[in-house]
Amino acid sequence: MRQVSIALFLATLMLAAGCAGWLSSSGPDDGGGPAPPTGPAATLPTSLHGTASGMQWWYERPTGAGQLFGVSWADTGCGNCHIETCDQCHTTGFDSVDEPAACRVCHSRIGKEEALGVTDLHFTAGMVCSDCHLPEDSHGDGNTYNSMLASPNADCEDCHSKTGSAVDVPATNSHTVHGDAVSCDACHMSSAVTCYNCHFETLITSHEKVAAGAFKDFIFLLNDADGQVRAGTYQSVEYNGSNFVAFGPFHGHSVVAEGRGCSDCHGNERIQELNADGKIVVTRWDDAEGKIVHTTGAIPFVPEMLELQFVTRDGDGWVPTSTDIDQLQYEFCTPLSADQLEALGYSEGGEPTGPAATLPTSLHGTASGMQWWYEQPDGAGALFDVSWDATGCGNCHVETCDQCHVNADGTGGVNEPDACKVCHGRIGKEEALGITDLHFAAGMVCSECHLPSDVHGDGTTYDSMLETPNAMCEDCHNTTSAVDVPATEPHTVHDNLRCDACHMSSAVTCYNCHLQTLLDTHEKVAAGAFKDFIFLLNDDNGDVRAGTYQSVEYNGTNFIAFGPFHGHSVTGEARGCEDCHANARIQELFDTGKIVVTSWDPGESKVVHTTGAIPFVPEALEFQFVTRDGDGWIPTSTDIDQLQYKFCTPLTEDQLEALRYLPPQITLANSLHGTANGMQWWYEQPDGAGALFGVDYADTGCGNCHTNGCDDCHANADGTGGVTEPDACLACHGRIGKENALELSDLHFAAGMVCSDCHNYVELHGDGTLPDSQFSDSGLSTVCEDCHDPGALPSAPEHTLHGGDFHCDACHVESVITCYNCHLETLLDTDVKKAAAAFKNFVLLLNGPDGRLRTGTYQSVVYEDDTFIAFGPFHGHTVTAAGRVCDDCHDNDRVTELNDTGAIQMTWWDVGESKVVHTTGVVPFAPELFEWQFVTLDGENWIELTTDLTQYQVEFCDPLTTAQLAALGVE
Predict the structure, then answer these.
(1) Phi first, then psi: what are they for 643, rounded to 5°?
(2) Which is it for the CA torsion 937, 941, 947, 951, positive or negative?
(3) Domain final residue pick, 351, 375, 393
(4) For a Cys staple, 347 with which of 171, 296, 351, 515, CB 3.0–4.6 Å?
(5) 314-339 per-position pLDDT tens digit
(6) CB 949 within 8 Å of CB 932
(7) Are residue 257 and residue 362 in the same domain, yes or no?
(8) Domain boundary among 334, 351, 368
(9) Could you tell me if 547 and 485 are in contact, meaning their C-beta atoms sit under 8 angstroms apart?
(10) Do residues 603 and 496 share a domain?
(11) DSSP string of 23-73?
(12) Domain tally, the chain
């Protein structure tokens, strides 16, 4: 604070010495020329106080009122108010000035501020004019300035600064954000004033200024000569039907400590008016009151968009004239730029911008998201017949900036996340339930992910936060970002999964938020707060993501709403495949046709919740609803009276089927396709070929034919894309190719079907359990009855007689095949399998693993001096619609041969053809009664051996019983 006692004392001394001496003094050694005047009495005559040149300069400008009205400055009388001598302000003896009374004699605007009830913290604190205004402001500095706006003036920063001053500027958000771009008075000047339409005629004729009104509670926001946004005001004059307005910066005596809040300027009523109407009506005529009235608030200075109602004096009153501005003048300032207007919330299209402009229409400002859900035709409101307003749910929304920001004026930072939790109770509930989030754990706060438009809106009122442009994980995490997404298999395979489907550890729900208590006492009393689950659902983009639900019971009626949900439970380590695929909930769904989401625990007398990743299949979900009974809860029903879901869809049948099994990337390596374990298991059994030949399976080369990865079968190198069937399958399954080479046909292939039309997902990819063979329980599971209903078979005698005792293939597989004597030596020596012959037109009739009669075949091998045959069930790809008839099996040639010779000759040497040949027809499986002709490779030729069968192996089947043989006709 400046004190003026020394200055006044010096002034007294100067005046006592004689003003003339001061005015005529010359500087030493200056060549005799006059020196600039010094001292108050010397500088006063050329100062603004001494000349009133400021007003004259404005008036006589090409843009000034003088040019418009054609009245000289001298004739206006405006210049009469200036100081000619020191004693016009100083008391006798020139020792003091009666402040501020002496100043108000001319500076009537200060008096007008007081008359209008406008206060200033400096005056309130007992300060006087000279505590801020320098001596040179009052007495001049020897220069005559065009305006006080051109002269060196006292600044707020003379006393207030961010560092080092007696009155520091606090580090609020407004100070930080605006910095030097905004002058102090733009926020801390509560009001400008203006005497509207100071009537020019009365001033000229009677030197009286008669104004139509004295207005306050407004400021203009404009750019000063230094480019700072600051406060301004204006002066309007009407003369002989011509209207004039002059604008300029203005620092009134209405300073307050508490600055404007964001919404006082950004998106305020004037900005909204500008957006809606393309203009701001600054003054208008009030017919009812018969007077001119003024708008209020912070008005953006956009001269071409300002409308003023001019008035003229009529006797002792005023009447409105026009709204035309004949001459507009502004000096030492410029209008706001397009960017500045946009920052305040103006949009040429009329849509508001800027936080304070958009907040009132945002989800935060309206709670319209909850209301929209509630009032939908399938919402709770329609079910319960309770209006939204009556629920009290809408009380939790933000009306002004200061509800979140630290300072009462809406400025300052936000105490995150505490301020957010005041309304966003679900975040607090997550913490209360012990759920953590890696972002919070790293010290991050809400605004580091949620965009300003998420918080303040963007000018559009959305139906739900799920409809708005939201922060996405990909904003920070991608393959090229600072926080890279690792190129792991789940990320590369699941391009249709949102991150939260795997990286959100848990959703939460407050179960059965009791509506009666909310209506009666405005308390939300829930039956339980549940975690450790998520729903898997499709969002509107078709991506699988996490979801949750809200349940409500009211007067015995039950309601549930589902939707996508991204909780604050993000983890770095994602779910494993088995957490979603083939999990307990999926198994429950396929085993029972439903998923019990909530149930009543009688022992605990409370409702409990299932856990894990739950597929969203609304019709299959079961809930136990409860109602409030005194201070406790009791179970009611499991009926869902109304189910609602928005911004999401249930999982499809294909998605459910994909979830039913573990992904092939996991199971394939432990499957029959991935290991060829079936062949190895047979080979290494105690009665298998390995024990007989003494050759390790690894040395045989048989295991080379297995699948190394998805891309062995799928079209694309990354294992995606379709499979070219049956060609891709034939690459390993040579027996099917051999059937084709032997010109055997199958009605399924003939109808255009491919392998995967019958063989299911698990058969192809495995289920994580390595079976011993395709005949094991977890091996092949496809059966004819998957497509053919046994109860709807044609009424053939065979179907009636055999019924469930026969497998379909016993009659409908036309032929099995075998590659006879696949020579083991050649496989060991050259990795080439050479067989003596490929035989068809026969089947073995045997008992399968389930006890039904079915078809089978065999594999024969010769190694050094040992011969070996393995028997097993076999369903070839030679299915016919017309099955066998009775005499194809009963009393057929093989049965007759067995009755006549006591044996069945399976193979023999054809001397004329020099090759081994095979029997045909249906062969009853009695391995002890089979006779064989073994052969060996001699160079490029096959020759007969005299060796008998050394060992045979029977797995997953049994020979026919005596009774079965007798039924076929064996005596």
Answers:
(1) -120, 130
(2) positive
(3) 351
(4) 351
(5) 888 999 999 999 999 999 999 999 98
(6) yes
(7) no
(8) 351
(9) no
(10) yes
(11) HH---TTSTTPPPPP-SHHHHGGGSHHHH-HHHHHHHHSTTSHHHHH---H
(12) 4
